[in-house]
Amino acid sequence: MQGLVIASSVILGVVVGFLPQLSRPKPNWWKISILLLFFINLFLILTPTLVSDTSYAAYLANQDIQEKITLEYKPISFSSQKDTFYLANLNYPILNTQKINIENTKLIDVQYNQELKVFNIVSVNKYNIIPISYPLILELKERIKIMVIHVPIAWVSVLAYLLSMIYSIMYLRNGKYEHDIIANASANVGVMFTILATVTGMIWAKFNWGSYWNWDPRETSIFILLLIYFAYFALRSSIDNPQTKAKLSAVYLIIAFAAVPFLVFILPRISSGLHPGASGENTAGPVLGGGAEMLNPNLLMTFGFSMFCFSLLFFWILNLKIRSELIK
């Protein structure tokens, strides 16, 4: 299910992104749709409440940690005896000491009581505007929402480098100058999204690892990738002859892309590091790891929708870049 949603989002984003053509102006309905979809996407990312599961609640109790968490109140999972509630898979009762009416509520805030070895209901809540929630992950908490932006941005950069390689091959085969422009524009936009992925990753690193930059294998590989494509721009700007520039640029982009799968997908996973999916962590990362606690159905759908939206944003920016170069 997880792979199907992500793959469908990526394929749909690419198909819609190519309409009508890369070098032709996008119709107004296309542009308005992207703006509307992005507004919905940001709304879905930022609005939902983080809800804890029973394993995290049990962890707090076992460690005697008095931290307020939010639980989803579902009659099918709660049983009650007057003001004492019992949640399946949680060995600690929940006391309604404030006599709060929870009949019509959806979310309850509870806090562990070290003395009584129970959870006390602190307050009741409702969903934030839309009736969906995201899982509360111990290591990430609110920072899990950054993933829904950071990963799609990183995906778009890989897509951009792939297109630059494909159109470089096409230029070498048919010599169409338009294909050189598309390859160059795609590399430009790819570097922009790589920088954005690096910045969002640094924000993640600051709050998860204590500093913005740790020379983790993932961070190091991205840094090397940027150097490779910065060198491409230096090469292109140093050649005056248009044909020579186009041919050498095409060859360089083809060779440069050979490093992309290794630096993005392989190196960070065969090296030990802090980033999710590193060697020794026994997962493929929060997205591909398959852990239900990471991407529950709500977060998975939002993640897939974000992949689709960022793919469309990439094609819009790429279209503008291509058209500006054609005008020049």
Protein architecture, described:
With 328 residues, the protein is α/β, with parallel strands linked by helices. It has a six-stranded mixed beta sheet. The protein has a two-stranded parallel sheet with strand order 1-8. The radius of gyration is 24 Å and the shape is elongated. The two termini are 46 Å apart. About 2% of the residues have low confidence.
State the main characteristics.
328 residues, alpha/beta, 2 domains, 6-stranded mixed β-sheet, two-stranded parallel ribbon, 9 helices, 8 strands, elongated
Q: Give the number of domains.
A: 2
Strand percentage, roughly?
A: 5-15%
**End-to-end distance:** 46 Å
Helix content range of the residues, please?
55-70%
- Along the chain, the helix and strand elements come as HHEHEEEEEEEHHHHHH
Largest sheet: 6 strands, mixed
Briefly note the structural class of the backbone: alpha/beta
Mean pLDDT: 88
Low-confidence stretches: 286-292
What topology does this entry show?
Elements: H1 2-18, H2 28-46, E1 49-51, H3 54-62, E2 69-72, E3 78-81, E4 84-87, E5 94-95, E6 107-113, E7 118-125, E8 133-135, H4 144-174, H5 177-209, H6 217-237, H7 242-257, H8 259-270, H9 297-327
Parallel strand pairs: 1-8, 5-7
Antiparallel strand pairs: 2-6, 3-4, 4-5, 6-7
Helix pairs in contact: 1-9, 2-9, 4-5, 4-7, 4-9, 5-6, 5-7, 5-9, 6-7, 6-8
Short description:
The chain has 328 residues and is of the alpha/beta class. 58% of the residues lie in helices and 11% in strands.
